[in-house]
Task: structure prediction
Amino acid sequence: MIPELGQFALVLSTVIALFLGTVPLAGTLRHQVVWQSLARPAALLQFVLVSFAFACLASSFLSNDFSVKYVAEHSNTLLPKPYQFAAVWGGHEGSLLLWVLMLSGWTAAVAIFSGSLPLAMVARVLGVLGLVSVGFLMFILTTSNPFDRLFPMPADGRDLNPLLQDPGLVIHPPMLYMGYVGMSVAFAFAIAALLSGRLDAAWARWSRPWTVIAWAFLTFGIGLGSWWAYYELGWGGWWFWDPVENASLMPWLVGTALIHSLMVTEKRGSFKAWTVLLAIAAFSLSLLGTFLVRSGVLTSVHAFASDPARGIFILAFLATVVGASLSLFAWRAPAVTLGGTMGLVSRESFLLLNSVLLVVATGAVLLGTLYPLIIDALNLGKLSVGPPYFNLVFAPLMVPLLFVLVPGTVAHWRQARMSEVFWRLRFVGGAALLLALILPFVLGSWSAGTMLGIFLGMWVGLGSLQHVLERLRKPGRIGGSFWGMHLAHFGMAVLVLGITGVKSYEVERDVRMAVGDTVTIAPYTFRLAGVEDVMGPNYKAVQAQVEVLKNAQVIEVLRPQKRRYFSTAMPMTEAAIDSGVMRDLYVSLGDALPGATPSWSMRVYYKPFVPWLWAGVLTMVLGGVLAALDRRYRRNTNQQALRTAGEALSGSA
Amino acid sequence: MKKFFLPLIAFAALVVFLAVGLKRDPREIPSPLVNKPAPAFSLPTLVGDKPFSPADMQGQVWIFNVWATWCVACREEHPLLVQFSKTQHVPIVGLSYKEIQPSDQANGPLSDEVKLQLARERSLKFLQKAGDPYKLSVMDLDGRVGIDYGVYGVPETYVIDKQGVIRYKRVGPVTPEVLIETILPLIQQLDKPA
Result:
């Protein structure tokens, strides 16, 4: 009964979304205030209905209702309760339901926190979000219904993919989806502005906090995915340039360009058409990511079951949404005024340069991701594009980006002097250069790449630090967006230093070990003390005990496991990691090897600076949250909105 | 203002590629072995003591199917193979690929005789339960023959002609579409007396 209620709620919510996507928008065209005012209640009702459907599916999981096909395929009676709940989004159908839940959640949030916006704008934004919801709900109902029944009902479920039975994976998809879907809000604001024909500073101001918070979620989601891959896949890598990772990186890159471009549009009224295009692109890339992941056109470690009917639906949806948006853009953008003038050297020009670099980087990632598909489509053969391409193309684009980042924060708006900007940064630049020359010798070996990485990391980090110190000496309250910006930039610096450190100084040993054997990676010695069998709730594991010695003292015992889940034949590695401030010690247990004495293949890694990666990402997320919560948006929105509302009313009347 | 149409045009081109790409299967990998003679080997079979070698099949079209009991996707294609073997005269030879996994030896390595015995027991039990589509199955315990054939992922299926030349290779489970649209027409064509 409960699954049917859930299905019914989904159908109802589709009807409501259709209503939301048509009536209020028609109201803005026909100046019907009542029609427009229906947008908010419809958005809230849709959220309630989708939440109900989601709760129904969750309850089917928690009550082990294997008569529901999706539950039978992704859960098991032995599965621990938290994972039974997380299994709701462990497969295709549930992921989409989660996606729609997030979308309706963002829509409801816009409905609630848009009190200061003109009604017509609210109606347009919510209407656009409603239309996007219709597309996804239709997708679920026609090709991917999570409530389909299974007959005969199996005695037990097939279990959740063991790779997903992990705390990191419980929160990774929701965070990533919050980011993806959050980009739909920026998109809806951009489309609403295009529809109204009024692309002005007010539009940029309204969408800024929404975009920044979505960006923060996306950053967190990508970081979590990377962290999970690092400790769960068992070979110590944290970024693979996998098509699905790229699918999340592309909206992030464009989203980063967007939050900076929005600032210029708000403050200076410039780059309006560019900003709108970025907003459309960020969401389009989120949709493209969904298409790539869900249609199976590319092979990936995230190999989900694919179905051609689903691929065709998403492609048609993508073509409709993006095609309509870009047509609207082509129609409306020529009328956009150019805004304030800018000098060749100014904050605007630095920010524009960075946004172009980010877009070019996105293009490079997109090309690398789609290249195998394009070559195949042209009948030129089969090939795959690997990390060497991405590293070769991506890193050289990040170098100027990070370099320009710092002057972009100190240069004056409108017109700045290059000499003045760099005079202000002389100590920062000098210190960064000095550290880049000295630190490699302290840490070990010297290479040009290491030096460049340290210089850029220090340049960005010290640049932010100097700016903050200067600001603290001046009077006046410092806003959240100031702290947010510098925290995010500082996080970026930590991330860059982390990547440089781990890439330059990691030591990886793949060895064969019998009990009693040792491996030394100075100053640490790893000793295999023993191997035993352990039982988990739904798996059996072989667990190794590895003592880590430093100066002949045991400082840590690591227990990597090789798990065999009862439900699948696939063995899973659980790496054991000892994290410090400056380094990780990483041990993963491989296969038992044939031979006279029992021995195992082991991966023993010394991973310096890995904790810096996670610290950097978290700092960036925190920066984003702080910036989005800046009081300025709420206060100014009120005053500004009243003014713009007045203009809008007199303009449209 | 033509430049504002550029994003739309670029996107349209992208959609065309995605639409074409949707029809392709990224898992379909061209094998360098297609149109080359099937690599020779001699391996023990699942039942009986006489070893099998591809030369034994000279003069007839046959299907070579790589499988294992631990392979989940093999179970997916298995019913189709059983049905095929009942309705078609073309023999299927199975290659039981690395039946003994490292995890079977977690408590120490096993001798080759024990391995073969364990693999036979397990495979026979599976075939008794799920049906046996194979004329015979050969036991590739160490996976060396798999390396010769370029086994990329289990299951894999090869069509080999009367002269012992590989004419088709499929990575991943055989689906009814692949069977009807590709494999059967190919077999009919190869089966025609020259």
